[in-house]
Design a protein that fits this description.
This protein starts with 7 loop residues before the first strand and ends with a helix. It is mainly β and 112 residues long. The chain has one helix spanning 101-110, and strands at residues 8-11, 16-20, 23-24, 29-31, 37-41, 47-54, 61-68, 70-75, 83-85, 88-94. A three-stranded mixed beta sheet has the order 4-1-9, with no helix packed on it. It has a three-stranded antiparallel beta sheet with strand order 3-2-5, with no helix packed on it. It has a two-stranded antiparallel ribbon with strand order 6-7. Strand 2 (16-20) and strand 3 form a beta hairpin.
């Protein structure tokens, strides 16, 4: 970043928020040394879905289970440049707890 003269540019990655002077940036943004720059990880909490469907006679049940992890990203180290396109990598994925037999039975009882 440069104090005076030509400002540097920051291009944010997809899954990490870049906040300059209290405002989240969406695209390429000019910055100076005096600007306050913060970095925040963007993620949703892990989710799980259990869907039960039956045939018309309710003699057969079909269960679909889907797990969506919380992905945690970090910024890659980059060489200095006047235009910095920030890059991220997935550091970790956290999955929700698995459904148990007890969960399935409780859900099946609700569709009667």
């Amino acid at each position: 970043m440069i104090e005076e003269g030509e400002p540097a540019s920051i291009i944010p990655p997809k899954n990490i928020k870049i906040i300059i002077d209290g405002k989240e940036i969406e695209g390429e943004t000019k910055v100076l040394k005096k600007n306050s720059i913060q970095i925040q990880n963007c993620f949703e909490e892990p989710k799980r879905y259990l869907n039960i469907s039956t045939d018309n006679k309710k003699t057969k049940a079909y269960i679909t289970i889907k797990y969506l992890p919380k992905n945690i990203y970090e910024l890659k180290d980059l060489d200095g440049s006047n235009t910095l396109k920030l890059e991220e990598y997935k550091k970790n994925s956290v999955y929700p707890p698995l459904y148990t037999k007890k969960n399935w039975k409780r859900s099946l009882l609700k569709i009667r």
